[in-house]
Amino acid sequence: MIHQLVVEAPAKVNLTLDVKGKRDDGYHELETVMHQINLVDRLTITAIPEGIAISSDCADLPAGEMNLAYKAAQTILEEYPDRGGVSIHIEKNIPLGAGLAGGSTDAAAVLKGINALYKLNLSLPQLMTMGAKIGSDVPFCLQGGTALARGRGEILEPLSSHWQLHLLLVKPKFSVSTAEVYRRFDMGKVSNRPDTRAFLEGWHRCDMIGISRAMENVLETVTAALYQEIDEIKKRLIKLGALKALMSGSGPTVFGLFLDRAGAEQAWQAIQPCEEEIFLVTSYDGRKS
Ligand code: C5P
Questions:
Q1: Which ligand 1 atom lies nearest to the CA of residue 152?
Q2: Does the domain made of 166-282 have the CATH classification 3.30.70.890?
Q3: Selecting from 3.90.180.10, 2.30.110.10, 3.30.450.20, 3.30.230.10, what CATH number does the domain 4-159 have?
Q4: Do the beta carbons of residue 271 and residue 171 sit within 8 Å?
Q5: CB-ligand 1 contact for 151 (6 Å cutoff)
């Protein structure tokens, strides 16, 4: 039996994000295109006789139940009390509270990792059902690639990953709480919605200009109103040649979409960070991992 394995956990960006309404269960009904990028955490998962132990190279990451990786291990191991426990070491590269699904992707990696380590033979749909209990983005992180997500974010329609996007990410020094952003969301304040249908048409045609014109994120109405840095970063990225600059998820990370690798690299070299973290990324290709 294997005792240890390493699982990659890629971040995501939302290429479009529309809120369709508020649901009776308190969540918001979404229509969003999610896309994995090659900014990855690495989780080393080791079988131990019992219990769940989390460690990380990132001091700010909670080690207990507040950590989604812990919650994921607890959720899956609860179903198999006759198996052992796990120790999980997280090499954290995805910034926390950034709108990049850093916590959700770690949770997805833990579910996949424990499934393999303890030979539980759970199917992807079974893992995704389990993942939805942990967080709305976890099913997407399990499925990977690019997808149109509806419902809370757990109803997924995969989109073909037939091309590579070149993005420059700017993560301001502050973080935001997703729950707080949704709590403050007011449909009446939305003027720019994504054109999801036009986005999908552009996506299938590999039309970079077409998708860039259709991209919007309605949660910017909350986060950009709270922090002027969001609009400032968007303007800087456009000046540096981005076709489109958009906030990811509930923010505060903003990404610029560039026509090609050369354009993104030029912007990366020219950008002057103001206490921000900058990442030059492309679409995640799991086959290379
Ligand atoms: O599902 P998750 O725990 O990641 O969501 C964090 C918070 O974001 C939820 O507690 C909820 O307040 C908000 N949320 C929402 N609608 C969604 C997803 C998240 O209101 N579709």
A1: 21
A2: yes
A3: 3.30.230.10
A4: no
A5: no
